[in-house]
Amino acid sequence: MKKKELLxxxxxxxxxxxxxxxxxxxxxxxxxxxxxxxxxxxxxxxxYYVFLIASHVLFILLYLVFIIFRYFFRTHKKRV
Length: 80
Known about the structure:
This protein has 3 helices and no strands. It is mainly alpha-helical.
């Protein structure tokens, strides 16, 4: 992989974790849990194997969507 591709993958990976954290705290605020309880639950959730697998599957899906969009954008750009 090129250095640019690794940087893009890292950005998407970081975005995935930010998205997970944001969705988690939005869900916690809807349930009206306080912030410290939400953080403790999120840290506990990180120890679960299934949660880590699901977060990495989400990253792979987002990265594949990015690659597909980039491919179609580049092929459309060449045609024009």
